[in-house]
Design brief:
Elements (H helix, E strand, L loop, with lengths): L2 H24 L6 H11 L6 E7 L6 E7 L5 H14 L8 H9 L5 E4 L2 H8 L4 E5 L5 E4 L29 H9 L7 E8 L5 E8 L5 H13 L8 H8 L11 E3 L2 H9 L3 E5 L5 E4 L17 H31 L6 H12 L5 H21 L2 H21 L5 H14 L6 H35 L2 E2 L2 E2 L3 H4 L38
Antiparallel strand pairs: 1-2, 2-4, 3-5, 4-5, 6-7, 7-9, 8-10, 9-10, 11-12
Length: 512
């Protein structure tokens, strides 16, 4: 090779490198196929999972190359529906080559054109194949997704005796289809967005267009557009980022893994957010009474459903005040007990070396440890560990005179009632300890003050601008008859006016 040819090749390579750098800065696609290949190779440098396949048409020598992520695509679709047709097509129209390929050559259900490298990166890392054509600054995205997903199963945290057993999985397209199957109407809208500078996680905002409150919908979009984070891996990320009460122990956004429950919430005028990679779907806004509602309430007799909700509310009250109430009576206000019961308590406590408050704290911590261990261990071992551990430790502690027998009853009642409302596990734990501490310092006065602080906080809770407890709606004639009590379907004529203004336009049940 003479010096002139060598210098020409060097200049050509340098020119290509400059074009690649310019292309990467502008994030656009070039009409030079070699420059595009070099740009893609530089973008995905040290990534062996990226496949680049070059091939040429046998009739007119048009050059193509495709890129895709190994293990995320259907290779049969790529071979039979993309590469083979492109190699044998006899296309003489070079001007409209992209449109001709899309309309007459490629055999795929979802195809679109892109002009930026950012879009190329997003789709390639999500299982699509991107086709580059010689002489065109437009790339073609072809749907070839084929990554593995978990089969549909009943959610462990929301098991029910009656009703559908399906649960969401980690694919947001599958989750959306489960909702659409239950709401077969054009009023159900689904808007896609990408969030996360590095993860580019796809989310889907679902709502009933004729029911949703536009003001709340605008707030949701506004908050989503303001999110600035590297990655969204699970729906809980959005839960914390969108929450109105970021430092509150109570939720302002609902969660569920059941498509039937989400469909019900959409019919109430709420907004659902599906996050790709998470089986948990968020619902907005969220009312406080929803902590005591379950999807099974809609599949059983309305009398029984109402009784169950009342039991859950009572259980929550017992779970937060029982230890504090016991400390108040034993340590401060003996006169509230009948004489015989007080003497029995006194005899029990005479042989116990620790103060009542220390006893309660130790036993509650032990109960929480056993509960957590039972959850983390394999199911069969976990159940045995929880039951045997509680029986053995409790009985041994009483016989060893480390704790009084009434204290075991108090802690057991507290632990069991706290399991009735799993949606309030965190809140129950924090409120219970808060009331316990303030009651051990100031007695009944402290307990009453603590309860008042809790009620003031709950009454001021908001979810996307609306109060979670709306007294005006409770006493309205057109109130939602599906809050504390579940009325028969023919009586539920109006939606909750706190959530949506479309109270009289459409009825949930009966004739409005």
């Amino acid at each position: 090779m003479n010096k002139r040819n060598k210098r020409y090749l060097e200049n050509n390579i340098n020119k290509k490198i400059e074009e690649v750098n310019s292309l990467l800065n502008k994030k656009i696609i070039s009409d030079d196929i070699e420059v595009n290949i070099m740009a893609i190779q530089k973008l995905f440098e040290n990534d062996d999972s990226l496949i680049i396949r070059n091939f040429t048409n046998i009739n007119n020598n048009t050059k193509f190359f495709i890129i895709y992520s190994n293990g995320m695509v259907n290779t049969k679709v790529i071979n039979d529906n993309i590469i083979t047709p492109l190699m044998i097509i006899d296309n003489k129209d070079k001007v409209n080559i992209v449109d001709n390929i899309i309309n007459k050559v490629l055999l795929a259900d979802d195809i679109k054109k892109v002009r930026t490298l950012k879009e190329v990166i997003e789709v390639v890392t999500y299982g699509d194949t991107v086709l580059f054509i010689e002489g065109s600054n437009v790339a073609i995205i072809i749907n070839t997704k084929n990554f593995k997903i978990r089969s549909l199963e009943e959610p462990v945290s929301e098991r029910s005796l009656l009703g559908p057993r399906e649960g969401f999985n980690e694919s947001f397209i599958v989750n959306l289809s489960l909702i659409k199957r239950r709401l077969r109407t054009n009023e159900l809208k689904a808007k896609f967005m990408s969030i996360g500078k590095q993860s580019n996680t796809q989310i889907c905002i679902c709502y009933m267009n004729n029911i949703v409150d536009p003001k709340i919908l605008d707030q949701v979009y506004e908050k989503l557009n303001k999110i600035n984070i590297d990655g969204i891996i699970d729906s809980n990320y959005l839960d914390e980022l969108l929450s109105d009460n970021k430092y509150s122990i109570f939720k302002s956004i609902g969660k569920s893994e059941k498509p039937d429950y989400i469909a019900t919430k959409l019919l109430e005028g709420k907004i659902a957010i599906i996050v790709d990679g998470s089986p948990v779907v968020l619902t907005i806004p969220y009312l406080f009474i929803e902590n005591f509602q379950t999807s099974e309430d809609y599949y059983i007799n309305f009398y029984y459903a109402s009784i169950q909700r009342i039991i859950r509310i009572i259980g929550f009250i017992f779970a937060i005040i029982t230890p504090a109430l016991y400390i108040c009576v034993v340590a401060f206000h003996h006169e509230l007990l009948p004489p015989q019961l007080f003497i029995h308590f006194l005899l029990e406590r005479q042989s116990v070396p620790l103060p009542a408050i220390i006893e309660v704290i130790i036993l509650l911590v032990a109960f929480d440890i056993l509960k957590e261990a039972g959850i983390r261990m394999p199911s069969n071992i976990g159940q045995a560990l929880s039951i045997v551990g509680a029986l053995v430790i409790g009985q041994a502690a009483v016989e060893a005179k480390l704790v009084a027998a009434p204290m075991i009853i108090v802690v057991a009642l507290t632990g069991i009632t706290s399991l009735l409302v799993p949606k309030l596990n965190t809140a129950t734990l924090i409120v219970r300890n808060f009331l316990l501490i303030i009651a051990s310092l100031f007695g009944f006065f402290g307990l009453v003050v603590g309860i008042n602080i809790l009620l003031i906080h709950i009454f001021n809770l908001k979810s996307f601008g609306i109060y979670q407890i709306d007294f005006a709606n409770i006493f309205s004639k057109k109130t939602d008859k599906n809050s504390i009590f579940r009325f028969p379907w023919n009586k539920q004529k109006y939606r909750n006016s706190t959530i949506t203004d479309n109270v009289t336009k459409l009825s949930i049940g009966g004739n409005s």
